[in-house]
Amino acid sequence: MNLEVSRASQIVALKLWRDNPNTPVMVELPSGSFLMGENEGDKFANDTERPAHPVNIPAGISISRDPVTVGEFRQFVPGHAPDEEDDLPVVNVSWNDAGAYCVWLSEVTERAYRLPSEAEWEFSCRANSRTAFAWGDEITPNKANYLYDESGIKVGAGHRMVAGTYQANDFGLHDFHGNVCEWVEDTWHSSYVDAPNDGSAWVKPMDLRRAVRGGAWDYLPRLLRSPWRDWDFADEKRDNLGFRVATNCRLSA
Fold first, then answer.
1. Between 169 and which of 57, 127, 139, 140 could a Cys-Cys bridge form, CB atoms 3.0 to 4.6 Å apart?
2. Number of domains in the chain
3. Where is the Sulfatase-modifying factor enzyme-like domain (predicted)?
4. Which pLDDT score, from 0 to 100, does residue 7 have?
5. Could you tell me which residues are beta bridge partners of residue 230?
């Protein structure tokens, strides 16, 4: 394991590591509490983001710095997207495929990898912010990869960008807003009524609907907001939907 201590900002000192050159770069998250869900005064908020509720994220969780890339996924499925660049976020993978990658990654590294919970994902996305986006309430094309502004004018590239193209948030993480949507572990719930507050995944047995977060390259800005939520069936594949991984590994100082 390679361990590198760096700073993405003056707020959080980060621990970055990876198991080997072919596996995702991981960032150890700080522990903490945050308010998950609707931002007060957000005109785009909806009932899926309500009620806003406090969640505690424990120490010892690491999440991948970027969405899993095509090159990283090809270590598991060599023939996946043969004409695509290695450093693009992988897409056209189902929730089932993402879970299978986590199982494979756990086997080859002897470390338990998984998909992040919705709570872990939003905590990572917000990075101590309480605004629509990690940097504030306004978004521009130099901050994230999205296609149209709110008036319907095309402003984006119209395709995926290389992972890490845009500035990291204050936890040192990339692409939580736009580029590709991301699968998380939770099944779909249409609101946060009775949601857990310990950061764990909220899973309803036998439900084939899985939560999706983050917004994508072909979306409007309102769908890139930190609390935005959606879902898809676990076997669905889309050209704007990928994933990132998490683990409960706690690193030594």
1. 127
2. 1
3. 23-246
4. 32
5. 212
CATH number for the domain including 74?
Answer: 3.90.1580.10
Radius of gyration of the chain (CA): 17
> How many Cβ atoms from other residues are within 10 Å of residue 186's Cβ?
28
pLDDT digits (tens, 9 = 90+) for 154-197: 999 999 999 999 999 999 999 999 999 999 999 999 999 999 99
Residue ranges making up the domain that contains 6: 2-247
Are the C-beta atoms of residues 98 and 115 closer than 8 Å to each other? yes
- The count of other CB atoms within 10 Å of the CB of residue 6 is 10
Q: Which residues pair with 6 in a beta bridge?
A: 14
- In-domain check, residue 148: yes
User: What is the amino acid identity at position 109?
Assistant: T
CA 196, CA 228: separation in Å to the nearest integer? 18
78 within domain boundaries = yes
Note the Cα 53 to chain centre separation in Å. 20
Task: Express each pLDDT in 95-143 by its tens digit.
Answer: 999 999 999 999 999 999 999 999 999 999 999 999 999 999 999 999 9
| SS3 category, 180 | coil
* Residue 37 neighbours by CB under 8 Å, 6+ apart: 49, 50, 51, 52, 53, 192, 227
